[in-house]
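Reviewer comment 2.1 asked that we show a complete input and output for one of the modelled complexes. We chose the iron/sulfur cluster case, as it is the one discussed in the main text.
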Amino acid sequence: MTKITQKIKEAIGTADNISKFKKFSKLKASYVEYDRFSDSNLHEGYFCYNCIYWINTSGGKCMLVEDEGPDVLGNVSDVIAPHGCCAGYEANFNKLHDTRSLSDVDAGASLDTEKNKEKITTADVK
Ligand code: SF4
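Response of the prediction step:
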């Protein structure tokens, strides 16, 4: 578990701590947006859209990282974009699609997309 992920998990531990929790800057979280991915299928790959900390209802926010300030490339968007990502990424398997081919799984096995949602590591998705 990364240090940044550990910190948010500790913060979520008690309601009292949530009000005291200070988010990481984009720079500290190694956050970056790649414009060329903005039209991508966000169900595949490592994007904020697929992260458990991403909040869409308020227009692109994150529970962990500030939406204001420059990213590691010096770009300022003032949102946490769906096509962004940072070092604190934690996969939300309810949003990700399994992109493994049959050759990647055990011989004789068939792909069960519902079962694949039970994956516990990001190594299982591309
Ligand atoms: S990947 Fe995106 S949503 Fe997830 S912690 Fe980083 S900035 Fe937040």
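The beta strands are 32-33, 54-55, 61-62, 84-85. We note this here for comparison with the apo prediction described in Section 3.2.
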